[in-house]
Amino acid sequence: MVRRKVLKFALVAAVALPAAGVTELPAIAGGQPALDDGAIIAIYNQVNSFDIETALLGQVMGHSPDVRALGKMVSSDHTGVRKAAHELAEKIGAELTLPPARMEAAKAHYAAVAALRELSGADFDAAYLKHEIAFHEAAIEAVKTVLVPAASHGELKAHFEAVLPHFQRHLDETRRVAGELGVE
Fold first, then answer.
1. Looking at residue 59, what is its pLDDT?
2. Which domain holds residue 119?
């Protein structure tokens, strides 16, 4: 019982860090040259990769059929988005360069994944859903307030604006499943 409580606490802490890392992108650029389109796409691809990995866990480890279906939808959608972003980078000639500050987000992501892997059953479902809600809230906010304003290429801005409703759909569906399972 104590082990589960410690794992849940660790997961909550680990979830908060990647979410904060996503929304703190202005601090990465603060006092330094602005993010170029290559760095923006690299960050975006990193975030999509994080959610693909987490969604695959939901698809495989989910206790509820709704959690497994959510994981499948999210992993599939983000895989398509990541592919489209790579194609767009090639089209506009953007060289993908991940800012070194994003290493902390990667460490936090892997800690969150490790914590999720320690859980099972309804505990996994609850932690996974909470993670996905926090993740999508932070990602949507970052796209709207950081990536779209920082993007210099019109096609990149259009891409972000086109995918935002899909990210919102993920958030809405995650909240729906959480509500049905009594996860707050």
1. 98
2. 2-180
